[in-house]
């Protein structure tokens, strides 16, 4: 039986396909393809200087503030 290629290694959290060294970017201990490293809301291409992450979900700084930070901020109780 011939060996199987392409089935092992790290998988991109977004597309779940194999990630190779030349196309890999790591954030928060999770591997992504460079092309898949986009804001989950506006699909803006991100890099390690302008991204924010909540678990395995990526955001640009603006959407992180509106989607994650705003939801986790509680209104003061009087």
From TrEMBL:
InterPro entries to which the protein is assigned, alphabetical: Znf_LIM
**Gene3D superfamilies tied to this protein:** Cysteine Rich Protein (2.10.110.10)
Which molecular function terms from Gene Ontology are attached? metal ion binding
Q: Which UniProt keywords apply?
A: LIM domain, Metal-binding, Zinc
The name under which this protein is listed is: Protein-methionine sulfoxide oxidase MICAL2
Specify the LIM zinc-binding domain's residue ranges.
Answer: 10-70
């Amino acid at each position: 039986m011939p060996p199987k290629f392409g089935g092992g290694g790290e998988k991109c959290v977004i597309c779940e396909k194999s990630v190779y060294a030349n196309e890999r970017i790591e954030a928060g201990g999770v591997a992504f393809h460079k092309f898949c490293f986009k804001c989950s809301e506006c699909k803006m291409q991100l890099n390690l200087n302008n991204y924010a992450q909540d678990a395995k979900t990526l955001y640009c700084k603006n959407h992180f503030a509106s989607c994650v930070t705003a939801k986790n901020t509680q209104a003061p109780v009087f």
